[in-house]
Amino acid sequence: MAGTVESLWKEFKYSGVKSINDITADKLMFCMKCHAPQVQYLEPSGAKELAELLIKARNGDEEAWKKVEQVNINCLICHQEKAIVHKWLDGDIDRNAIYGKKEGAHFDAKYKVLKKSPVIGSAVFCGQCHGTGPNFEFPEPSQCATAYGSYLHAYIPSGGTKVCQDCHMREDNLGHKIPAYRDERMVKKALDYSVEAMGYYYLHKPGDLRPTVRVVVKMKNKAGHRIPDG
Amino acid sequence: MTGRTKDGKVVYNNLKVFMPMAAGFDRDNKMAFGAHRKTGYMVDTSLQPGKETVKIFEFPFPYEDIEKEGKKVREIKAKEVEVTVNLWYLPSNAAENLEKLEEGKEKFLFFSEKKLVKIN
Q: For chain A, what percent of residues have pLDDT higher than 90?
């Protein structure tokens, strides 16, 4: 992330950013759209502070790292910011509400209303960040995660019927941990493999018998997207 | 994939990379790293959903052609080779750095299998 921030003045000569002093929130959004959508609401001073912290954290500053860690995908990102995908159909986000699978009261002192997100249990919800390809809405398109694109164009055509939340949350009661490659259970679910090996004599030409090791490795991807992707 | 003889000598080492490869700014067919540079994919060797990927490795048992009693003879130096197949996931970093990476943080072992291969 720090490298990307620095690229604004080191690599992109037309970005309008000559140094860290020119950083504004919109300049960070080609990463923060997914990594920390809340950054879009930062004042220029906040955006500059965040950029400085990212660079310091990258360089080993532990205090900076502790602060940067707090800018994360927290409850409000999924349960409010990203809860409505179809704004013409379902309306804009109610900033006083928390979104979930149903309507009603919410226990929090600040967010007392629970509203229903029609898509929170669907793959399209995760696809908002886990992407399809280049983010063309930006003047300089970024491309990070493309798992949703692989889901749409490879998993579904292959006959897949599950959504992200099935494997990463509902099954095995994984819940809000939403694990992936770090969890052995997920690796076992995602991948079947076999290794077979034999020795044989390959006859390259008359009189030239070559003792040969032959190893056949088969890997079946049972996940809903390419491996690796994000 | 690594092949070793009984004495631990590596007689074969091969690496396959499975990943989507993006060109930098989708031009010049030059692969790039970094979300701020990647645009599209030009090559994709990753494991595809619902599909089986098969990789075959072949290499010789160590042997030497010598002369014995006036005849050319092929002497097999090791009739047993242990092959180790590891599939690693590296979130970032080159596979050449594998030994130096911290497991559980910079590298994750998806599977590991050993087979003993013999020839008579």
A: 94
Task: Print burial letters for A187-226: b (CB count within 10 Å at least 16), e (below 16).
Answer: beebbebebebebeeeeeeeeeeebbbbbebebbbebbbb
Q: Which residues of A touch B40 (CB under 8 A)?
A: 133-134, 143
Continuous H helices in chain A: 2-10, 25-35, 44-58, 62-69, 75-76, 87-90, 123-127, 147-150, 164-165, 184-190
Closest chain B CA to residue A189: B110
pLDDT of A158: 96
Q: Percentage of chain B with pLDDT > 90?
A: 92
Q: Tell me whether strands B71-76 and A104-105 are parallel, antiparallel or unpaired.
A: unpaired
Token look-up 């000598």 returns B9
Give dist(CA A128, CA A33) in Å, integer.
Answer: 9
Query: Which segments of chain A are extended strands (E)?
Result: 97-100, 104-105, 113-116, 191-205, 208-221
Angle at CA of residue A73, ends A15 and A22, nearest 5°: 20
CA–CA dist A137, A134 (Å, integer): 9
Nearest to B46 among A158, A224, A227 (CB): A227
Cβ distance of A31 and B115 shorter than 8 Å: no
Cα separation, A21 vs A42, in Å, equals: 15
Are the CB atoms for A191 and A227 separated by under 8 Å?
A: yes
pTM over 0.90: yes
Q: Would you list the domain boundaries of chain A?
A: 1-71, 73-120, 129-178, 191-221
